[in-house]
Predict the structure.
Amino acid sequence: MGRLLTANLGVVRARMAAAAEAAGRDPAAVTLIAVTKTHPVETIQMAYQAGMRHFGENRVEEAIPKIAAMHRWLAAQPGAEPIVWHMVGHLQSRKAESATGLFQLIHSVDRPRIVARLGRVCAAQGQIQPILLEVNLSGEENKQGPDLSADSPEEAAQRLSPLVEAIAAEPALRLQGLMTMAPIVERPAEARPVFRQLRALRDELARRFPGLDWSQLSMGMSDDFEAAIAEGATLVRIGRALFGERTA
Ligand SMILES: *Cc1c(COP(=O)(O)O)cnc(C)c1O
């Protein structure tokens, strides 16, 4: 598994770099997040040893013991580079309290209730929580976030404005950009319009809210990360291309 993982990582990094260069972008501007949901701590340790530093989980209950185990493992290696943890899955309000402080970036903030909850919890804990705003641009019902699939960038930005203002009003939350989940399609190129839409929405929001940080675009997974990079992804979330099919 260690050798396969190292080989997979090499392939994914090469494909990421090629996609960035083809788009005239600096490959260093795209961060690989290894999505380790369903995989054991041993796999995360192997991935760390292979050079990965950003990890994503999609359920708080699953992430808590895995992150704790990785903290202990890293603490036993003086001078080891820290891990950056990403929460990429749907966040339930009652899990807000355990998610803050656990993840350096929460990608899935998508509704007023979770903004209020996170804002309150982080303020009480005295910490600043970086977040992304998740939107649904595919129109699929199983996707999280406000459904903006039928809107122009201007309409989408207009519809999102109250949520953006609510986030900006929470001193403990630091917005850093947008996240979306592309539709499952036959050919990755078919997902590309959704990535283009996310970037256009970001550009429109940056015009309306120039004081906020819109630098991050979290988009692209195992099957479509090259299309996402072509459209400006700064964070790609990759599971299967690194670790193989999930069985759990
Ligand atoms: C599982 C997951 C990924 C990774 O998906 P793969 O197809 O395994 O690359 C990315 N983002 C989110 C939100 C996920 O839940």
